[in-house]
Automatic annotation (TrEMBL):
SUPFAM superfamilies attached to this UniProt entry: HlyD-like secretion proteins
Protein name as annotated: RND family efflux transporter, MFP subunit
Record keyword Signal present: yes
Species name: uncultured Thiotrichaceae bacterium
Highest taxon in the source lineage: Bacteria
Length: 378
């Protein structure tokens, strides 16, 4: 019995010893002003260096989708294809039209050459003439007919026959060209039935499966070049003036990886609703990041020359969805939300809004502390 009481007392003493430092470590400290350059932390996302969305160009049923999300392909590889059976049937019909048009063109050209070499107007069986030997008709009968018959002129008849034959050739050529143009349109549609990789990359998202019916413009695959990566952030218009292309700023990937990024592109226009400007930052090649990851970009603030407000990270209440501290005023504490900025050396963190230099806060408060909690007097 004595041993059990001794063990229970020892356990209680150990618990008290473990708990007492947590309570006694809480103290009231002043908010400091750091001389380092103030930085604003902006949320951003990791994006591929290049990204395209391949959409359906013709209606039909999806016949194939190459690979799964994350699979890599070389430039020119086929990523998806829409069934082209109807287009092939139209193509065969147009090929038949081309053959017919070529035959008509050959016949028209033969008739035109015959009219040039052997005019119908000089045919011995044609009027005027008496069916006499062709030499007599050509030298006697037809000249007399041209001179004596007011309603007949052999030269006009020859001209008309030539124009008619030439018109037949021109119409045959137009029909052939029209059929060939339709064939080119069908071939282009057949090419559009296939979605081809425009550059080396991976499939980032599949939006259809084999058997789905698609219409022109419907997205099929989202494809990106991920060998190089970027960050894209919406920077408030008041901070854009502190950025310039090729400028290097600190970033943090997924809350763990610290790195640097170079400003690669600043959009020339701002969003009229949110009053922000889209800025892209190039990441180093060896940084461990995947498209879609959350990242933080540290942008120089306009008030960086006057210093920045910093507090110990231990002063932040743990277990809260939003960063908050206990501010001491009139011998009591009140809970206050703060907006954090960049982290500094020595376990300090910058406070952008919510605190001013000289204010008093509670350092190392317990996680369950609320407004009104005060550390014990020492």
């Amino acid at each position: 019995m004595i041993n059990k009481n001794f063990a229970a007392g020892s356990l209680l003493a150990i618990c008290c010893l473990l708990a007492s430092p947590l309570v006694s470590s809480a103290e009231i400290i002043p908010v400091e002003l750091s001389e380092s350059v103030s930085q604003t932390v902006l949320g951003s996302s990791v994006i591929p260096y290049k990204e395209v969305t391949l959409s359906a160009q013709i209606p039909g049923v999806v016949r194939s989708v190459s690979g799964e999300v994350g699979d890599s392909f070389q430039q020119g590889a086929q990523l998806a294809q829409v069934d082209e059976s109807q287009l092939m049937a139209k193509r065969n019909a147009i090929l038949a039209q081309i053959q017919t048009a070529q035959s008509i063109l050959q016949r028209s050209e033969a008739q035109y050459r015959r009219e040039v070499v052997s005019p119908r107007s000089k045919d011995i069986g044609a009027m005027p003439g008496f069916g006499m030997p062709s030499m007599m008709d050509n030298f006697i009968t037809r000249p007399m007919a041209d001179a004596l018959m007011n309603n007949y002129d052999s030269d006009v008849g020859r001209y008309t026959d030539l124009v008619t034959s030439a018109s037949g050739v021109s119409q045959a050529k137009s029909a052939l060209q029209q059929a060939q143009s339709e064939l080119q349109g069908i071939d282009a549609a057949l090419q559009n039935s296939k979605s081809i990789a425009p550059f080396e990359g991976i499939i980032m998202e599949k939006m259809v499966e084999v058997g789905d019916t698609v219409q022109p413009g419907q997205p099929l695959v989202r494809y990106g070049f991920v060998k190089f990566k970027r960050l894209q952030a919406d920077v408030p218009s008041g901070l854009v003036s502190h950025l310039r292309e090729d400028m290097v700023v600190p970033v943090k990937i997924n809350g763990r990886t610290d790195s640097m990024a170079k400003v690669s592109q600043i959009y020339p226009v701002a969003d009229p609703e949110r009053h922000t400007v889209t800025v892209k930052f190039d990441l180093p090649v060896d940084v461990a990041a995947s498209p879609g990851m959350y990242a933080q970009v540290y942008v120089p603030d306009a008030q960086g020359s006057t210093g920045s407000v910093v507090i110990p990270k231990s002063a932040l209440l743990s277990g809260r969805s939003l960063p908050s501290v206990l501010v001491v005023e009139n011998d009591t504490s009140s809970l206050r939300l703060v907006r954090l900025g960049a982290e500094h050396n020595g376990g300090m963190v910058e406070v952008l809004t919510g605190l001013k230099a000289g204010a008093r806060i509670i350092d190392s408060p317990p996680s369950n502390a609320t407004s009104g909690w005060m550390p014990e007097a020492q």
